[in-house]
Amino acid sequence: MAPLTRVRAGSSGIPGDLMVEYYRQRASVGMIITEGTYPNQASQGYVGEAGIATDEQAAGWQRVFEAVHAEGGRIVLQIMPADRGIHPDTNGGRRILATARRSPRRASSPTPYRKR
Fold this sequence. Notes:
- By secondary structure, this protein is of the alpha+beta class.
- It has helices spanning 17-25, 55-70, 88-91, and strands at 31-37, 74-79.
């Protein structure tokens, strides 16, 4: 199964019951590649994106993996730092960059759009 970033981990980045069920339901597809998961708080790109930067986040992913394995599925965690696409409001402006090249995409703010 190709990765689909669902941004369902809430503000804490901890995979919860909704993510456990989502991946459990898809365990029969063969190999699941998870949604992009930030390895460090400074590489979080989206509000609601799951992380693997804290013990609590790792424990959340452990629950996901156990649910998939219980259904006979295979799963691999996709590590995805957001790189230069991170808007400063998402994680306080911290960035871990994998490349010195500029990103062609624009970062969007996690703050809802407001008409002025």
